[in-house]
Design a protein that fits this description.
The chain contains 3 helices and 7 strands. With 178 residues, it is an alpha+beta fold.
Length: 178
């Protein structure tokens, strides 16, 4: 679920940036902030995964007869950082980062109705720019093991579909004819 959500968001933001800058170049890739292998101007990296406590992490769906819960939706918050690649010109990086921030603010909701290529096992993704205090920001960069780079933190609320909880029992025993 996490990989599909991050892959979808990186591609969606990349498409929006390509349209904004009238470019065919890839602008965003998923990767580790400190890696030297990143070739794209912006790097999307996972900071943390958090269970959504408000919904108690469960939303039941009922079968057609409304008699029993059949599936549950998993509610998770992903905290990601969108970072300017250290090999990029500083001003160009700030321009791309600013445009990516605008994309997050102007189009915060993704689902099957808004995107035809939305992942099957996800119900909804909601994005918001997440502000960190300077102290927290400092600790994040220390834990990443790199010097500060221009970045924004994005909170992605993920609602995913899980497999059915209750299925019709199937008999594992067969009757033998004697």
């Amino acid at each position: 679920m996490v990989d599909k959500a991050l892959d979808f968001i990186s591609k969606a933001l990349d498409t929006r940036l390509k349209n904004t800058f009238h470019s065919d170049e890839q602008h965003i890739a998923i990767g580790h902030v400190g890696s030297n292998r990143n070739e794209t101007p912006l790097i999307l990296s996972l900071l943390s995964i958090e269970e959504e406590n408000v919904t108690h992490n469960v939303t039941f769906k009922r079968d057609s007869y409304n008699t029993r819960p059949t599936t549950l939706d998993d509610h998770v918050n992903l905290y990601v950082v969108l970072v300017v690649n250290k090999t990029l010109d500083y001003n160009s990086g700030l321009s791309l980062l600013s445009s990516a921030r605008s994309c997050v603010i102007n189009r915060p909701i993704y689902n099957h109705q808004t995107n035809s290529n939305f992942p099957e096992n996800l119900s909804r993704l909601t994005l918001e720019v997440y502000n960190l205090s300077l102290d927290t920001q400092s600790r994040v960069w220390q834990s990443l093991g790199v010097s500060y780079l221009p970045s924004i933190v994005i909170k992605i609320r993920v609602i995913s579909n899980t497999e059915p909880l209750i299925t019709n029992p199937k008999s594992d025993t067969t009757q033998s004819k004697e």
